[in-house]
Predict the 3D structure of the following.
Amino acid sequence: MNAVARKPKLWRFFFLLEKQMMFFPILILLINQASKMNAEDGAMEELATEKEAEESHRQDSVNLLTFILLLTLTILTIWLFKHRRVRFLHETGLAMIYGLLVGVILRYGIPATSYHNKTPPSCSLKEGPVSTLLLNVSGKFFEYTLKGEINSREIHNVEQNDMLRKVTFDPEVFFNILLPPIIFHAGYSLKKRHFFRNLGSIITYAFLGTAISCFVIGNLMYGVVKLMQFVGQLTDKFYYTDCLFFGAIISATDPVTVLAIFNELHADVDLYALLFGESVMNDAVAIVLSSSIMAYQPAGANTHTFDTAAFFKSVGVFLGIFSGSFAMGAVTGVVTALVTKFTKLHCFPLLETALFFLMSWSTFLLAEACGFTGVVAVLFCGITQAHYTYNNLSEESTTRTKQLFEVLHFLAENFIFSYMGLALFTFQNHIFSPIFIIGAFLAIFIGRASNIYPLSFLLNLGRRHKIGGNFQHMMMFAGLRGAMAFALAIRDTATYARQMMFTTTLLIVFFTVWVFGGGTTPMLSWLHIRVGVDPDQDLQQCGDNFLVLQGDGTVPDGSKTRQESAWLFRLWYTFDHNYLKPLLTHSGPPLTSTLPACCGPLARCLTSPQAYENHEQLRDNDSDLILNDGDLTLTYGDTAITSNGASSSGGDAAGGSDGGRGVNGKRSGSTSEEALEREMDQEFLSRGTRLVFPIEDHA
Amino acid sequence: MNAVARKPKLWRFFFLLEKQMMFFPILILLINQASKMNAEDGAMEELATEKEAEESHRQDSVNLLTFILLLTLTILTIWLFKHRRVRFLHETGLAMIYGLLVGVILRYGIPATSYHNKTPPSCSLKEGPVSTLLLNVSGKFFEYTLKGEINSREIHNVEQNDMLRKVTFDPEVFFNILLPPIIFHAGYSLKKRHFFRNLGSIITYAFLGTAISCFVIGNLMYGVVKLMQFVGQLTDKFYYTDCLFFGAIISATDPVTVLAIFNELHADVDLYALLFGESVMNDAVAIVLSSSIMAYQPAGANTHTFDTAAFFKSVGVFLGIFSGSFAMGAVTGVVTALVTKFTKLHCFPLLETALFFLMSWSTFLLAEACGFTGVVAVLFCGITQAHYTYNNLSEESTTRTKQLFEVLHFLAENFIFSYMGLALFTFQNHIFSPIFIIGAFLAIFIGRASNIYPLSFLLNLGRRHKIGGNFQHMMMFAGLRGAMAFALAIRDTATYARQMMFTTTLLIVFFTVWVFGGGTTPMLSWLHIRVGVDPDQDLQQCGDNFLVLQGDGTVPDGSKTRQESAWLFRLWYTFDHNYLKPLLTHSGPPLTSTLPACCGPLARCLTSPQAYENHEQLRDNDSDLILNDGDLTLTYGDTAITSNGASSSGGDAAGGSDGGRGVNGKRSGSTSEEALEREMDQEFLSRGTRLVFPIEDHA
């Protein structure tokens, strides 16, 4: 992990470059003024600084108010659009437009005045820059901290660009404050069933596809860079690794707009699962890929030559960071599950929610503290929490946690997008290079195409339920770039190459979100992709034979076909169902029946009383996992049995009358994907232990 | 408002004094290192700083992890205590104990090592400290920002106290990040009915009482200070205004522990309302009072003499800040109400919640930007939101917003209390002065006594339902000091006097929370205060005559008695019921019936369709407002009419079957105060328009 240590700028929470403002649920203003907790200056001096500080604080409040009002305006316009069913512009696109407008106003509308218009005093030192500097003013010592280097031409307007600098966030804010809730929410709200059904394809697209896309884009861009050097348009260094880095950051797709429209129109669930899964996973891949490429960079003095050792080191770094982050996320998820299982915390939903929140957050910190990637850890933590902890939470906490993260996610996402709009005009080091920009637009299409089409072809060889041509075109089309590409690009804008990348990324995000996002609805109809699909009907259409998992978790022979990574997957499923679920949650078969007899006492003490009650009749919802693309064969009977043993017809169960923990017949729409919103609230209906008899039992 | 500008340290969000960490919902680490977005240093230099920064970031993550684990531990222990019904130690007391333990470990357990153990380089300037300093290192310029003055004895261990400094938050974090959600929650979860019933008494205790307490404590402490000077124990200046300031900060009571126990035991509702209302309001009063005292301070060169002009200026500042902040809060609340009323935002609960959150937050910023007190504005915003906006929210949003702020409140409160524990050992400028501490303990008791007993006597002259002796003793006993006193004290610890105050405040908080908080249950039984009270029964016991409000909001004569500020109150109520409620919410009588005929067209366009539907049968829940202490005479019939006109028996209505917006008979417990938690979820049952006929109508 030493190589990780060299990722430039990767591990910084420094908010000191600009007069920072930070927005997340409660706002933080950071002003580069002195806090004088221990100061004992003269009263006059203090009063002067006092006034200045107060003025500065007030200004910051005003700036932030601007942001809040921007978001408020966005929300109101979103409502208007939703109300009038406008689909050509998604809320994120809208947030960007508002951001752009405010950016223009800040840039050109407000005269660049500053309250004291002088060059700050300077002093000289022989040594290099140090983080802490002492200033001796007639015997009194003052501590100063390094803010950064400034160009000699900028010295005279250090104070003048204040307004623009004030609205510039530290890049790390995006990484450490705004992305975690977005990513956690993605993991936590994952529609397990369709996700796992397409897991093989998703992983292929996310890992192999992102790597292909990264290298294709990287190489194409290297060609573009060579062309620029040839034409004489490139004034500074631009290495091959820079191109690869660009390939990595721009490979992170974010089809938030597309998925929102899918949700609204009830487009095909498998396509939805593929797109959602790919975009969630490839964010993680892109983060780790970009760090690995940076780890590669300093290995050789001449970065143009291919260094095998450095390459394998990078691969090692990739695997190390990825698996480390994955492990961190999974471990905290499991710990939370254990804590919620073995305490009766669910009697106090507030405590439970707070614990859930803190544990999920500590994943991020733990990963950062260990040198892994917090954001990636948070993604897998979210998935683990949804898979295990969720089953142990009280009814109230399930909705509470969902809603809490939903609000955080919503605010963070819209904030990022409106900030993107703002950044186009307020970021002060843009480098617009037409050749590079045109080259990048071409490269991302070629990169996306060489990800989707070849991999789909390969996957179709193994899939029963083929990924059709129209699906492939739609996936190609849905390769929008969004928050993650932006956050990765803004993370480091120190060099000429990075500044050019940042500018280009910003333009790509604008273009894809507006044009592709807006074109989703026409594209869907043009490609003849089914809309208005009821995910349950969808299942029934595909076959009437059914697959039921025995109480001990084994799958009856005869009804299974070739699956994506079938044996590994079934192995994992069986292990999860027989040991992990019962160990970590209140659901699943009792451990006493799945563990060997010698472990009896241990098993008894680890099994929760609920598990015994449910035994025999138990049929875990996750049996859906076993279903693969070709086998949409699951049917349920009409009779549902509530967990307390009372029998009711499927129609009655639809209301979820026993408070969401109940048992729903197949037709009650328990896994309906009608709307993400409704899903959020309903998802608890489809979790938990389901006690559904196959129809034959009653025939 | 110019005087406000001189409040020292009052308006700072500077997080730069220490290696700051910030905790709120998502955590922010602030490290005093350079961010080098635009830096183009040599690679070696960069790598070195890189490593250092990374190390520093990792350390910060570990520190924060400590905080998170501390909170997690607290939550688990709270659960254990609740589970075992332990009442001698409340969660806040527990959080303090854990904080203390970690403080001891940080202070004594970890050797003060640092990764580079040298005195930082220094340079000299003739001018005073400037906020921005340039450093010229062989032609390159680096920008530095002022961190603060340091003592010459501390120069050599600038880096050594890192660990302790890292866990030291900027005081403004408490004020600007942690307090707002706590205060907003207090306002938003206010139990309107009992609060308004005792409004007169609450305002008397909060305004007059806090002022009395402040001056009594201030004068007593001035005596103590004189004594210390006489004995020779005081080594530095300690002005009369310092004493008054101490009186102001220590007058803010925070009976969170007591109220939690009241809730659990269902203690007397009127006592609860008095205590809750007083503590909420006197926080606001204490904040503004302390700013006003600071505004007084620099008026005369000799602060010992009484300066009439300065005194009145302070009073003016007090009134200005208070009314300004009040207006800000009310205005944003009203704007939110209007927006939620006139858009169909309630179809999209997520948007609605986000809007609600942003608008409430913008109150804080707006007040800060205008030079008022954000925290006070947020309190009144919370009350306004609860009174108006709440009625317009969708069912989902009502729970969502409640729960969101409940979680934020819980986390913030526990964080503050555990930080208090930590601060006892990690704050580095404690001044323990036994005389001052003993004097302060005596002063706060005398101050509390001269607040409660004389005012209760005066209030009892005007109240029918007297505040009994046991109630008075309980209020005396419940004068715990908590988060607000701490936040006000830590805000400025620059001078000797302030450091001594901070230390003393900390000790007072510990003592009162542990001893008085723990003694609540025995005290309740010793004072023979009723527990296990059903608030509805409570009402019925008091009389059988009833008071019903006509549809037009006038109160029938004959059943009313002397009220606290009766005419003003009734005037306000009538205005609120007839004009504000119908204008701002979907409830209340249609404006067309309350406004004069000439305003017809305007009234029609401002009245929501729901209001017409409800007209004739309308009986607003807020008629409870009219009830004063002496007249607990409200009874309802057994028959409730749901808003769509269907009639059902009171017993049936109890389930709130029509989704919380329905109508509940009196006995259905719609205003039950059994538990704060349940109230949160249930409160929407008691809001909205109630259509209850008095029993006579059916007899």
Residues 43-83 of chain B form the longest helix (41 residues). Residues 1-46, 113-117, 538-565, 616-699 of chain B have pLDDT under 50 and may be disordered. The beta strands of chain B are 21-24, 26-29, 122-125, 132-137, 140-150, 619-620, 639-641, 647-649, 689-690.
